[in-house]
């Protein structure tokens, strides 16, 4: 299968509060292996897996919820979406360098090309977009 033949693909899985973070990382990494560009972009794959870990952790810790993870490749961007039952808005933590937790949004802001939160009747979904290194940012001029 050539680079141009895989136009769009997606995967979805739910992860319970117990053991969901590690399982989510492993699941995401396995599915990313099927995208041809990931072989040449190990740093991007690591950033995606770290983002998956942080978003599932946030769902478990802050929303006290299981996490529904969706990975969707649309030939421009890999969308990493995590839905939880929490209604609150993700809030970046203080910039305290001694803080040992609460850095997920800071990491996601640094790693993803863009990200957003959408609220639904049953909770919220946080979605981050990752473009392959050889493709331009699909959401503009590098702003987040």
From TrEMBL:
Top-level taxon of the source organism: Bacteria
Keywords of the record: Kinase, Serine/threonine-protein kinase, Transferase
Domain spans labelled Histidine kinase/HSP90-like ATPase: 41-129
Keyword Acetylation: no
GO MF terms held by the record: protein serine/threonine kinase activity
Xref: Pfam families: HATPase_c_2
Annotated segments matching region Disordered: 82-102, 121-144
Keyword Transport on entry: no
PANTHER family documented for this protein: ANTI-SIGMA-F FACTOR RSBW, ANTI-SIGMA-F FACTOR RSBW-RELATED
Protein name: Anti-sigma regulatory factor (Ser/Thr protein kinase)
Organism: Actinacidiphila paucisporea
């Amino acid at each position: 299968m050539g680079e141009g033949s895989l136009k769009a693909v997606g995967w979805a899985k739910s992860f319970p509060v117990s053991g969901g973070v590690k399982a989510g990382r492993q699941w995401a990494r396995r599915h990313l292996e099927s995208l041809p560009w990931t072989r040449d972009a190990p740093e991007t794959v690591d950033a995606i897996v770290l983002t998956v870990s942080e978003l599932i952790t946030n769902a478990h810790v802050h929303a006290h919820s299981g996490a529904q993870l969706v990975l969707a490749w649309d030939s421009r961007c890999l969308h990493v979406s995590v839905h939880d039952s929490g209604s609150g808005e993700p809030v970046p933590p203080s910039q305290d360098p001694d803080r040992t937790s609460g850095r997920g949004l800071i990491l996601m802001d640094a790693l993803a090309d863009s990200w957003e939160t959408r609220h639904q009747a049953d909770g919220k979904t946080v979605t981050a977009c990752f473009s392959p290194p050889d493709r331009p940012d699909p959401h503009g001029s590098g702003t987040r």
